């Protein structure tokens, strides 16, 4: 099997993302750069807990043609392949792009406000996490909207009403960005609740348990 090391790396990453609750079932996907021309991408509609290296798709980045099919046609590339490809084409410094529906950052994507990033997190997330306007998942429309927002140093993006995308030079750093974005989202949601209770104290009894639950979630 060609590209065995990169295929295994994708499987390991998906397991880690699933174990930590960032991927759920077949939800979420990622792209790993192999070299200037080739990328490895998660397959569509595959349970990550049982995914094998041969299920991972290897494509040419320029036109997304399948160039190494180890599954004998059983696996198709993720529907969000085009989304990741726009990032990797625009950003030669990016080696890994991860898209998730992770719960807290996805809640921020529903709220639809950009997240300012505190200095301690900027190495992973950039200065600000922008919101990409809504477009249906898996469409070139969504990929085009993201492409317009991609900038050097921007490592995390909220996809309106959908989820998030994080990217970095390597898979460990992209994974760290996913975790730190979830921690930032947790803090922002807790702060929103605090502000809401301050303006409407009669809501305290109902909202305080939600805030306490958020603040007790383990984060980086
Ligand atoms: Zn999605």
Automatic annotation (TrEMBL):
<dbReference type="GO" id="GO:0046872">
    <property type="term" value="F:metal ion binding"/>
</dbReference>
<dbReference type="InterPro" id="IPR001303">
    <property type="entry name" value="Aldolase_II/adducin_N"/>
</dbReference>
<dbReference type="GO" id="GO:0019323">
    <property type="term" value="P:pentose catabolic process"/>
</dbReference>
<dbReference type="GO" id="GO:0016832">
    <property type="term" value="F:aldehyde-lyase activity"/>
</dbReference>
<dbReference type="InterPro" id="IPR050197">
    <property type="entry name" value="Aldolase_class_II_sugar_metab"/>
</dbReference>
<feature type="domain" description="Class II aldolase/adducin N-terminal">
    <location>
        <begin position="8"/>
        <end position="189"/>
    </location>
</feature>
<protein>
    <submittedName>
        <fullName>Aldolase</fullName>
    </submittedName>
</protein>
<keyword id="KW-0479">Metal-binding</keyword>
<dbReference type="InterPro" id="IPR036409">
    <property type="entry name" value="Aldolase_II/adducin_N_sf"/>
</dbReference>
<dbReference type="Pfam" id="PF00596">
    <property type="entry name" value="Aldolase_II"/>
</dbReference>
<dbReference type="GO" id="GO:0005829">
    <property type="term" value="C:cytosol"/>
</dbReference>
<keyword id="KW-0456">Lyase</keyword>
């Amino acid at each position: 099997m060609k590209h065995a090391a990169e295929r295994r790396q994708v499987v390991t990453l998906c397991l880690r993302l699933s174990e930590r609750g960032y991927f759920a079932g077949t939800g979420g996907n990622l792209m790993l750069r192999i070299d200037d021309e080739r990328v490895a991408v998660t397959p569509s509609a595959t349970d990550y807990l049982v995914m094998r290296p041969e299920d991972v798709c290897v494509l040419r980045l320029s036109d997304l043609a399948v160039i190494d099919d180890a599954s004998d046609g059983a696996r198709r590339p993720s529907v969000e392949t085009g989304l990741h490809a726009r990032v990797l084409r625009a950003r030669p410094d990016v080696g890994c792009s991860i898209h998730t529906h992770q719960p807290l950052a996805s809640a921020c994507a529903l709220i639809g406000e950009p997240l300012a990033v505190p200095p301690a997190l900027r190495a992973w997330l950039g200065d600000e996490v922008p919101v990409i306007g809504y477009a249906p998942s898996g469409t070139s429309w969504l990929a085009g909207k993201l492409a317009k927002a991609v900038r050097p140093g921007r490592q995390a993006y909220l996809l309106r009403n959908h989820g998030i995308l994080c990217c970095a030079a390597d898979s460990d750093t992209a994974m760290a960005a996913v975790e730190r974005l979830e921690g930032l989202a947790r803090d922002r949601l807790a702060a929103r609740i605090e502000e809401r209770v301050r303006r409407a104290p009669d809501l305290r009894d109902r909202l305080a348990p939600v805030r306490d639950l958020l603040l007790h979630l383990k984060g980086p």
